[in-house]
Amino acid sequence: MEFQDLILKISMQFINLDSDELDARIVDTLKKICKLTEVSGGYVFLLSDDRRYITGMHRWNTQNEKPIIKEIQSTPVTRFWWWAEQILDKKPIYISDVKSLPDECENEKKECIERGVQSILIIPMIFKNDVIGCLGFYTIEKTRKWSPREIAALQTVTDIIVSAVISKKSEKALKESEKRYRFLIENINDAILINQKGRFVFFNQMFCDMLGYTSEELSQKEYIDVFTAKGLETLHEREALRNRGFKVSPHYETTLIKKNGTIINVQIDVSIVDYLGAPASLAVVMDVTERKKLEKEFQEMKVQYLKRQRLSSLETMAGDMVHDIKNTLSIISGRAQMLSDRLHDLKEPDIIIRNAKQIEKMVSAFLKKVQMEKDLNRKSLDLNELIKTEITFFESNSYFKNEIIKHFQLEKSIPPISGAYVDFSHGIMNIIQFSALSMEDSPQKILTIKTSLVSEGILIEISSTGKEIPAEVASALFSPMEIGRLGFNITEDENRQLPAGNLYHSYLSLQPYGVIFSVESKPGGGNTFRLTVPT
Question: Which one of 58, 158, 182, 283 is most buried, counting C-beta atoms within 10 A?
Answer without folding.
Answer: 58
